């Protein structure tokens, strides 16, 4: 018997309303205090194509994707044969009895579900049956693994926002199915849930919503965007929460504006304009949109305009797999736009960090006066994750070196002059004025062409080089501001593993598996570029370092090679891009293979 | 030009005309763009605008460079080719008391920037959008732009095979609230139209034919000085009257004057010429522009205006204070708000 440690794959048809059923199960289990995670594997389609929901229960809290499942809920006749290949030996197959199946592979147990009969027995309105059919498997699974019916009811109340007209028929079907199973089936008892105490106050939220909320608590004032999967949810969450969080209840006025642009070229242009004008500004997109933003990102870097760009990565190149996840935009983002430049990149590893980096990115951008790109991905962005409640920002908003009228007057009195691109403090970060500053010396000319310290047009070779070298200094300043890389287990061994972003989830588990099997592997998680000092130390102190990532070419390894050529021979790549997040099993198999 | 040079005394706000100047131009001698820059200086001076309350925007090209040649005391952002509108759409939200002046060219607006131009116009962001239209790419030394007429010949390009884009017509089609056309060779009209545009609460599109003396000033070209002078068909004589000034139209008989009151109380006075034209009638504007294309007229004047069209700012309910002056503590919701959010996810 496996208690609080098993996985379920729900195989359904896109557009059949399975999301309600699946989210209900997720929330109900979470409410039992049992650590649970789930990911949607879905097509780029509105209705009709196969879709899967992989749910994992794990008492230790591991959330990585698994290659196999213990229980299959088969509601799609088209895919059942292939789905069965993913079921472990001894696994359970809950199958709509109308799906014809010759025979089950040896060692699997079949539980036919009389979906039609139970719907009829529920006496719910016939026209709702297509939406209620999935509630049958909710009820039978609840009986099978022991999901508390009260928690299911609570989850339905949450889902339907306490609309009883919606809750009642759904709950009715769940209960009928539960009772039927109880009376007619023998419970194999292989996989069971047992309620736990510790996780009671966990929240369930997707990374896109978390990122949007982080930005709103970071004082975001202007967002422009263009619809694109899988980033759309981020901008839509802004729209949802601005009335609640950023609107004056007395006057009904807001201090945060969202504009849906005509394309990504315009979305980033608007954000650059807003950032230049002193607004906390952000856009959100995915790979194809980021391509269109490349030129303005270069201008923002060169003209020193603080902006934040969220890239919720999907699979590229090209249109790629729009509804599948990858970490394939890292090198593009790092090197984006022509000419020499350095991009600040934040790499959230969970929804808590989507929230945290949501506000932090705005601080860092304004402190450095440069673009900050947050690399999320579909895995984080579009799936609902169990998380600790969001932590309130632990320090005040950092607005950077801004001169309003009085500040400028003081500076002028002290130094006699002010130049927009003068490095007064030696950190490469100049002082900026903002439009609306009515001091007669405040205005300056912002351009993408060569300029001197006083923002005057210049094609002087020395001016160009001096300016570009100053910009480089910002990288050192950035290292003090970005979230430092983190060593996640005690450093003992000679073998290291590096992961970042959503791959953290399976990497953590892989490291534990390797360590259990007697291989000491230390784990460093990179949270930002430029690399903080911890990265070089880790490279220095380990003999072989595996860089684990969800892309074909090992992009983080490429960037590490560029930054630390002396250690390049130590670096090994465990990289893969097939549209799915990496599983711990796969990571372990790669490292074992290379370690020999 | 003469009238502007004479005025060296300070305006009501205490600024001399020189307070509105920019850097010396680096454009070619005789370039229409210089004349337009000059008229912007005069218009701002005469309208008694505070230079610090103006923000300049531009894209890429000869025209876009010219933002450096006026209003040195104003903030400016010289952005990317064809993508100045988006910059302004972000920046002008920061402080709605500022006036935006965008300078673009025909390549910048009608080729690479057509999309952003039309979306700007459709959103009706309050700003002046001047297209210095010469039908040719200057900085890359003489290629056709989208406003070049079919059959135009250029040294290294041969003959232009395509029909031109009519910027004023595109603007009207995109529901512009202010569309004017002028000719750099008619500085007085240019100045009055700029003044009217600056007083307009919405996107004010000014398509100014501004001959390129180096690459496209052949007598037969629609964008040359001599063609413009020979074919200009003014709709009216335009005079801009500030809110506190008295309207004194002396030399015209009754019935030959029409006034349009702008949002800020200023008045544009149209002294009618032969043509009877109503610039508040959109259908009429489309008909006129079509007719001008067929008859080879360079129609100049205010083609269309709707002083009360809602602007992009009317579409958002924003707090009255300047967004970029709002202190941090007002931008970050409190702990209680986050507790509520966390609770809502449980």
In short, what is this structure?
Helices cover 39% and strands 20% of the residues of chain A.
Describe it.
The complex is a heterodimer of chains A (596) and B (346). Chain A has 19 helices and 25 strands. By secondary structure, chain A is of the alpha/beta class. Chain A folds into four domains: 2-200, Pyruvate-ferredoxin oxidoreductase, PFOR, domain III (Pyruvate-ferredoxin Oxidoreductase, domain 3, 3-Layer(aba) Sandwich); 205-387, Rossmann fold, CATH 3.40.50; 402-479, no CATH class; 486-595, Rossmann fold (3-Layer(aba) Sandwich), CATH 3.40.50.920. In chain A, the strands form six sheets. Chain A has a seven-stranded mixed sheet, sandwiched between helices. A six-stranded mixed sheet of chain A has the order 3-4-2-5-6-7. In chain A, helix 16 links the parallel strand 21 (495-500) and strand 22. In chain A, helix 9 (264-276) runs parallel beside helix 10 (287-303). The longest helix of chain A is centred in the N-terminal third of the chain and has 21 residues, at 164-184. The two termini of chain A are 34 Å apart. The model of chain A has no long low-confidence stretch (mean pLDDT 96). Chain B is an alpha/beta fold and 346 residues long. Chain B has a single domain (2-315), classed as Rossmann fold (3-Layer(aba) Sandwich), CATH 3.40.50.970. Chain B is 30% helix and 21% strand. An eight-stranded mixed sheet of chain B has the order 2-1-3-4-10-9-15-11, with helices on both faces. Chain B has a three-stranded antiparallel sheet with strand order 12-14-13. Chain B starts with a helix and ends with a helix. The model of chain B has no long low-confidence stretch (mean pLDDT 92). Classes of the chains: A alpha/beta (596), B alpha/beta (346). At the A-B interface, strand 9, helix 7, helix 8, helix 9 and helix 10 of A face strand 2, helix 4, helix 6, helix 11 and helix 12 of B.
């Amino acid at each position: 018997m496996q208690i609080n440690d098993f996985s379920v794959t729900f195989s359904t048809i896109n557009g059949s309303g399975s999301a309600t059923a699946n989210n209900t199960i997720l929330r109900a289990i979470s409410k039992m205090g049992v650590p649970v995670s789930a990911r949607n594997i879905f097509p780029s389609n509105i209705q009709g194509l196969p879709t899967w929901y992989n749910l994992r229960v794990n008492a230790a809290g591991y959330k990585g994707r698994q290659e196999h499942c213990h229980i299959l809920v088969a509601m799609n006749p088209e895919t059942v044969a292939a789905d069965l290949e993913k079921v472990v030996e001894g696994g359970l197959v809950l199958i709509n009895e109308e799906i014809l199946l010759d025979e089950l592979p040896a060692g699997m147990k079949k539980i036919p579900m009389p979906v039609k009969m139970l719907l009829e027995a529920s006496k719910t309105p016939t026209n709702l049956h297509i939406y209620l059919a999935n509630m049958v498997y909710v009820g039978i699974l609840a009986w099978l693994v022991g999901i508390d019916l009260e928690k299911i009811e609570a989850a339905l109340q949450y889902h339907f926002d306490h609309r009883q007209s919606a809750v009642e028929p759904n709950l009715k079907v769940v209960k009928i199915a539960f009772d039927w199973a109880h009376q007619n089936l023998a419970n194999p008892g292989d996989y069971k849930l047992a309620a736990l105490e510790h996780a009671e106050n966990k929240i369930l939220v997707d990374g896109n919503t978390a990122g949007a909320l982080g930005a709103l608590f970071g004082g975001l004032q202007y967002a422009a965007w263009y619809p694109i999967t899988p980033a759309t949810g981020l901008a839509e969450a802004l729209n949802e929460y601005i009335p609640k969080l950023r609107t004056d209840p007395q006057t009904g006025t807001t201090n945060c504006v969202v504009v849906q642009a005509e394309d990504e070229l315009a979305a980033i242009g608007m954000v650059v304009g807003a950032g230049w004008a002193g607004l906390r500004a952000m856009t959100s997109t995915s790979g194809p949109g980021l391509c269109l933003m490349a030129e303005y990102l270069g201008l923002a870097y060169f003209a020193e305009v603080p902006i934040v760009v969220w890239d919720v990565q999907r699979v590229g190149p090209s249109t790629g797999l729009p509804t599948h996840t990858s970490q394939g935009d890292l090198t593009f983002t790092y090197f984006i736009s022509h000419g020499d430049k350095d991009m600040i990149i934040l790499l959230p590893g969970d929804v808590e960090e989507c929230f945290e980096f949501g506000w932090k990115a705005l601080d860092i951008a304004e402190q450095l006066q440069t673009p900050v790109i947050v690399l999320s991905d579909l895995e984080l962005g579009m799936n609902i994750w169990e998380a600790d409640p969001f932590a309130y920002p632990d320090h005040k908003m950092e607005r950077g070196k801004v001169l309003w009228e009085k500040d400028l007057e003081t500076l002028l009195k002290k130094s006699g002059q002010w130049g927009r691109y003068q490095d007064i403090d030696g950190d490469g970060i100049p002082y900026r004025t903002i439009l609306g500053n009515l001091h007669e010396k405040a205005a300056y000319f912002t351009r993408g062409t060569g300029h001197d310290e006083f923002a005057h047009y210049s094609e002087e070779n020395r001016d160009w080089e001096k300016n570009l070298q100053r910009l480089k200094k910002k990288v050192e300043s950035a290292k003090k501001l970005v979230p430092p890389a983190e060593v996640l287990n005690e450093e003992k061994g000679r073998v290291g593993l590096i992961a970042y972003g959503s791959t953290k989830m399976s990497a953590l588990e892989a490291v534990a598996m390797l360590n259990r099997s007697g291989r000491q592997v230390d784990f460093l998680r990179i949270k930002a570029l430029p690399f903080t000092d911890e990265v070089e130390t880790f490279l220095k102190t380990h003999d072989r370092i595996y860089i684990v990532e969800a892309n074909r070419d090992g992009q983080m390894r490429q960037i590490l090679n560029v930054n630390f050529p002396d250690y390049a021979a130590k670096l090994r790549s465990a990289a893969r891009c097939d549209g799915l997040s990496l599983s711990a099993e796969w990571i372990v198999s790669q490292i074992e293979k290379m370690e020999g | 030009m003469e009238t502007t040079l004479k005025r060296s005394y300070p305006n009501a706000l205490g600024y001399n005309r020189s307070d509105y100047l920019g850097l010396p131009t680096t454009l070619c001698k005789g370039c229409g763009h210089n004349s337009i820059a000059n008229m912007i200086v005069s218009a701002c001076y005469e309208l008694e605008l505070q230079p610090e309350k103006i923000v300049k925007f531009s894209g890429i090209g000869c025209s876009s460079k010219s933002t450096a040649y006026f209003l040195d005391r104003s903030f400016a952002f010289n952005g990317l080719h064809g993508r100045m509108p988006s910059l302004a759409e972000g920046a002008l939200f920061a402080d709605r008391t500022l006036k935006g002046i965008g300078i673009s060219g025909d390549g910048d607006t009608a080729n690479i920037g057509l999309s952003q131009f039309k979306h700007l116009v459709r959103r009706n962001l309050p700003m002046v959008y001047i297209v210095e239209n010469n039908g040719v790419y200057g900085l890359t030394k003489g290629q056709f732009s989208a406003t070049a007429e079919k059959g135009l010949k250029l040294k290294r390009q041969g003959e232009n095979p395509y029909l031109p884009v009519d910027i004023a017509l595109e603007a009207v089609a995109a529901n512009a609230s202010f569309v004017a056309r002028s000719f750099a060779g008619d500085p007085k009209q240019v100045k009055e139209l700029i003044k009217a545009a600056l007083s307009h609460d919405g996107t004010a599109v000014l398509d100014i034919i501004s001959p390129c003396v180096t690459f496209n000033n052949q007598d037969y070209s629609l964008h040359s000085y001599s063609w413009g002078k020979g074919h200009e068909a003014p709709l009216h004589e335009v005079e801009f009257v500030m809110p506190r000034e008295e309207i004194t139209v002396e030399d015209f008989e009754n019935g030959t004057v029409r006034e349009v009151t702008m949002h800020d109380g200023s008045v544009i006075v149209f002294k009618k010429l032969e043509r009877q034209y109503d610039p508040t009638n959109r259908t009429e504007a489309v008909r006129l522009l079509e007719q001008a294309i067929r008859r080879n007229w360079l129609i100049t004047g205010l083609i269309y205006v709707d002083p009360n069209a809602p602007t992009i700012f009317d579409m958002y309910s924003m707090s009255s204070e300047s967004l970029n002056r709002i202190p941090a503590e007002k931008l970050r919701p409190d702990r209680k708000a986050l507790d509520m959010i966390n609770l809502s996810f449980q």
